[in-house]
Amino acid sequence: MMAREPVIRRWYDQMSRIDRDADMTLMNYGWASLDSSHLPLRLEEVDEVNRYSIQLYHQVAGAVDLRGSDVLEVGSGRGGGASFIARYLEPGSMTGLDFSPKAIDFCNNHYSVPSLGFRQGNAENLPFQPSSFDAVVNIESSHCYGSIPVFLKEVHRVLRPGGHFLYSDYCPENQLDTLRHQISQSGFSIKSEADISANVLKALQTDDGRKRDLINRKVPRLLKGFFYEFAGLQGTRSYNSALRRGEKIYFRFVLEK
Ligand SMILES: C[S@@+](CC[C@H](N)C(=O)[O-])C[C@H]1O[C@@H](n2cnc3c(N)ncnc32)[C@H](O)[C@@H]1O
Fold first, then answer.
1. What angle do CA 119, 152, 182 make, to 5 degrees?
2. What H or E segment, with its residue span, contains residue 214?
3. How confident is the model at residue 42 (pLDDT cuts 50, 70, 90)?
4. Which listed site, 201, 216, 228, 257, has its alpha carbon 20 to 30 Å from 164?
């Protein structure tokens, strides 16, 4: 196990300790349309608060028809995205996997959506038989992993032939070619690829006030700075370098086994 893994796990366990009221069920930067004529995604009232993070799920997981499929999300966090997929995209089964035991406990107690389940495990050693799923979703999680090639090999193993890997995260701009190479080495073909950095940046700007209020309300003073950074609030290093200056790219891939 890499030394940073326990640190990352402790951080995400800490999120569950702080957010006992389930105000933070999604933990990604979000997606916003750049086109004012774009029709907004129709959401139930209860989901409006997480609109931007849900829109990112819709952009990534909604790229193929998941109706009736067996879907796995790797790095499901506090389950808001897996719950969105289960309720709106109508898969036959939806499994969320995360390596934070506290996040998995939270999800198992919080959600009661038929066909939705959660289990603890590691992206680099998935606890599933080969050819178990029609689609795998992975959003803003892979930057935490020790080895992307090992992760890609695991996703390829658990997918059925013809299955889709719906993959989105940020990475340094100069590592994107390496990632494309790793993807083709792992046996996937790239069906589509998009740079969604501008959409993610717009979501960060639009949702900044809500996230800042939430953090100010819930997080102990000593940890606030870390949470601002984690949430990519305006003025932080993650916000400035990650996307605004173009040093990091937020990508979205549709891959096929
Ligand atoms: C930024 S959060 C995103 C969570 C979720 N996808 C969302 O958008 O709300 C990253 C998640 O990846 C999980 N994670 C990090 N490393 C992991 C690993 N090796 N295996 C499984 N999950 C991992 C963390 O525990 C965390 O829940």
1. 160
2. helix 208-218
3. very high
4. 201
CB 145 near ligand 1, within 6 Å: yes
- Ligand 1 centroid to residue 36 C-alpha, Å: 31
- Give 126: exposed, middle or buried? Use CB within 10 Å, 0-12, 13-18, 19+: buried
* Nearest CA, atom 8, ligand 1: 28
Q: Which of 36, 33, 72, 66 is nearest to 51 (CA)?
A: 33
Indicate yes or no: pTM above 0.85. Answer: yes
Tell me how many degrees the CA angle 107-229-217 measures, rounded to the nearest 5.
65
Q: Which residues lie across from 120 on neighbouring strands?
A: 98
Pocket test for ligand 1, best of 16, 26, 107, 141 (most atoms within 8 A of CB): 141
- Distances in Å between the Cα of 54 and the Cα atoms of 127, 130, 148, 159, 202 are 26, 29, 25, 24, 14
Tell me the CA–centroid distance for residue 76 and ligand 1, in Å.
6
Does the beta carbon of 204 lie inside 6 Å of ligand 1? no
Name the helix (H) or strand (E) containing 98: strand 93-98
pLDDT confidence band for 3 (50 / 70 / 90):
low
For all residues of the chain together, what is the average pLDDT?
93
Query: Among residues 158, 80, 64, which one has the least CA distance to residue 116?
Result: 80
All domains in the chain, ordered by first residue: 4-20+46-195+247-256 (3.40.50.150)
- What is the atom index within ligand 1 of the atom nearest the CA of 151? 19
Instruction: Find the 13 Cα to ligand 1 centroid distance in Å.
Output: 11
* Atom from ligand 1 closest to the CA of residue 230: 1
